[in-house]
TrEMBL record:
This is DUF6495 family protein. It comes from the Bacteria.
Length: 157
C-alpha cells in the first residue's frame, strides 16, 4: 500500500465508488461478501488498492496545503516540479493563531517585529504525490490557496 487505508467513514462516503471499483473487477455484491468471509486477506488487499486509487486521484489535483500550529503557519504551493513554502512564525507566546483572537491579532500585526515571514522552495522527489501525502500525514490540509496568494502578495510588495 502506497498511502493509507481510507477510514470507515471515508469508505461509507465513497460507497458507490467502491461498488463501481468492485464491478470493474467483475466482483458482485454476493462475491464480495464471500471474499470478506472466506478470504479476509484478499478483501484487505482490495480495500488497500481502492484506497490508493482514491488517494492518487485526490493528490493529483492538489496545488495548495496549509499547516497551522499555535505560533506557526506553513503555506505550500505545489507545482509539478517543486514545493514553494511561505512560513509565518509568531514570537509572542501569548498569541495562538489557531484561535480566532490569535488569527485576528496576526492580521492586525503582520508587520510587527514579533512576526517573521520567510519563503523557501524545494524540488519534489520523483513521486510528487508521495511528497504531498507526507505533508498531509504531518497535519497539512488541502486548500484552494487563498492564504498562500494573500501572503505571496504581502511578501512580494
Amino acid at each position: 500500500m502506497k498511502y493509507s487505508r481510507l477510514t470507515k467513514e471515508q469508505f461509507e462516503e465513497l460507497h458507490q465508488e467502491f461498488i463501481n471499483f468492485l464491478a470493474s473487477q467483475s466482483i458482485t455484491a454476493a462475491e464480495w461478501e464471500e471474499i470478506k468471509k472466506e478470504q479476509p486477506k484478499v478483501a484487505e488487499d482490495e480495500l488497500d488498492v481502492f484506497s490508493d486509487l482514491i488517494w492518487e486521484g485526490v493528490l493529483d489535483k492538489v496545488s495548495f496545503l496549509e499547516h497551522f500550529s499555535s505560533n506557526q503557519m506553513y503555506l505550500f504551493n505545489i507545482t509539478e516540479v517543486e514545493i514553494n513554502l511561505i512560513a509565518v512564525t509568531i514570537e509572542n507566546e501569548g498569541i495562538d493563531i489557531t484561535t480566532r483572537d490569535g488569527y485576528n491579532w496576526l492580521q492586525q500585526n503582520l508587520m510587527a517585529d514579533t512576526v517573521n515571514m520567510y519563503t523557501s522552495s524545494k524540488v519534489l522527489s520523483g513521486d510528487r504525490n508521495k511528497d504531498i501525502f507526507a505533508l498531509i500525514q504531518q497535519g497539512a490540509v488541502i486548500t484552494k490557496g487563498d492564504l498562500f496568494s494573500y501572503f505571496d502578495k504581502v511578501i512580494n510588495t
